[in-house]
Automatic annotation (TrEMBL), chain B:
It is an enzyme of class 7 (translocase). InterPro entries: NADH_UbQ_OxRdtase_su1/FPO (IPR001694), NADH_UbQ_OxRdtase_su1_CS (IPR018086). It is a multi-pass membrane protein. It comes from Candidatus Lambdaproteobacteria bacterium RIFOXYD2_FULL_50_16. NDH-1 is composed of 14 different subunits. Subunits NuoA, H, J, K, L, M, N constitute the membrane sector of the complex. One of its GO terms (molecular function) is quinone binding. This is NADH-quinone oxidoreductase subunit H. It catalyses: a quinone + NADH + 5 H(+)(in) = a quinol + NAD(+) + 4 H(+)(out). The lineage of its organism: Bacteria, Pseudomonadati, Pseudomonadota, Candidatus Lambdaproteobacteria.
Amino acid sequence: MNRKPRLSFKAYFGQIVSGVQTMFEGMSISLASTFLKVQTVEYPDVDISSRESLRQSTYKGNMAGMPENYRGILKVDLDICTACLICMKACPIDCIAITNVKCDKRKFNGKSGKAAVQTRAATRFDIDIGKCMFCGLCVIPCPTGAIAHSKIFEMNRGSLAELVERFVTPEQAAKHEARALEIETEEAEKKAAKAKTDAEAKAKVEPKGEA
Amino acid sequence: MIIELLTSVGIPELAAKFIFAGAVGFLAINFIAVYAGVVSVIERKVAAKMQSRVGPNRVGPGGWLQWLADGIKLMLKEDIHPHGADHFLFNMAPFLIVCGVAGAFAVLPWGPAHAIAADLNVGILYFISITSLVVVGILMAGWSSNNKWALIGGMRAAAQIVSYEIPVAMGLLPAIMIVGSLQVSALTESQGFMPWDWTAFDNPFALLGFLVFLTGSVAESNRAPFDLPEAESELVAGFFTEYSGFRFACFTLGEFAATWAIGAITTAVYLGGGQLPPSMAGMIPLSIGLFVLKTMSVVFLLMWFRWTLPRFRIDQMMDFSWKYLLPLSLVAFFGQAIYILISWDSPAMQTIVSHLLALAVLGVIFLFAGRVAYNIKIQLIPINTLSTEIGPLERAGKIAPPPAVVEEVETAEEGA
């Protein structure tokens, strides 16, 4: 028979004492947590996209909200987008599609504080969130911080076509294209005028040279 | 009193007794059903609070009608008999369990010492023996299900309940020796309102007996940390694996009704029952309120055990009964006998000992409260102190959240 070694009296009472002590500690921990706030975020009931929206709601539970570095679906801030196509080239699965046209030149500071110069505007900026794998490789090289992960994680859509997020509205695209046409015509006019003046200057110079 | 009223109208005495018994039984069963439902919601709420969760909060105001939804669901479910099951035993088992628990309600007081359905002169013996009916039901359920998990659960339950019967009965002995009676009303009446008049704090051996009785009762009602018969992670659901519908509800009903039975008998025998101070004697609603308060405190203690302590291993469980609880209950028994011999004719000694013991228990409670406060302080410190985590001061609303990232877009328009 394989028998357990007999307990000494010291070990026997030691076990009783340690049992009582550990139970005392454990019971105090579980009672302490009854006095603390619940950590559950009751998601569909409260808007948890940011800390501020949590504070504004009547919700009284965990106020942490989504973490700052959460990678939700991509959002593009077209006000600071220079349509440089870097994100499109960085995307490993080609879920970003951009076309651009010329626009008025403007200088501004991007989100990181870097100076940026915009010479082209996007007429189409589509992100297929059905393909996107939220790797963040497009966010890293963006020179102005225009493309960034939002904290939105609700990606249900009614159809496949709706999975494509279109950031440039048709009106904006039409406006940009019209402006691009204007700029082109202006430039063409300028070119023509310049050519004309050049030709005139040449014409002026030539006779002198001849003379 | 009701029997006398009925016989004075002209009903024969035997019929009057049956009518009375039927009425009391009807009330008790309804009380059990409603109590089991409400306490199941309370238990889920307490568990949620202890785990920093929300708990049931959808049905009714704050989720307090969840038990009605659960009950309706269980009644409407199909009653499935597994292939190869012993139908007669399978059908009998849940009702034996409910009978065993409901039978115990006959000797439970409801506040004032004499408000007992049947104040038997062997009330405690009746209580101990009728609750043993539960083990028969559990074993029947385990055997008749034709399922190995159910059988293992049933066998475990049999081993456990038979083992813990002894410490439970021995744990009640000090109180019985102090009072000299097995009648529940006499056990309650011998106590007073103040804690030092309670049997539990009469002397150290009575306190030991009380603790042994409480621990053994937890094991007898198959609640965690002694929930080996229904160990969810090992056996699917233990002895009621194959049950569904109303028969399953009966098991749950029995389990929750057992918590009230334990709480009530502990309160009546050890914690002063519904005894009021002499100046307020005879105020029945107050007495009932006090009794319910004490009983629910014991029930809360059982829930607290359940959601704090991890489950025992099967050999540890048997060790705990035979190697620790049984010797301790014997110590309580013999110590109580010797204490009675010593303090037989010195009321002064009895008074001093009981007051000192009540004081010591108060000290332990204060120590415990201090430890709880310390643990609250510890748990308020966030584990992850990154800026994405929320700090304790911010959680309490003392400081504003850190400012959001502001876009630094300065569009300096320049002519093209």
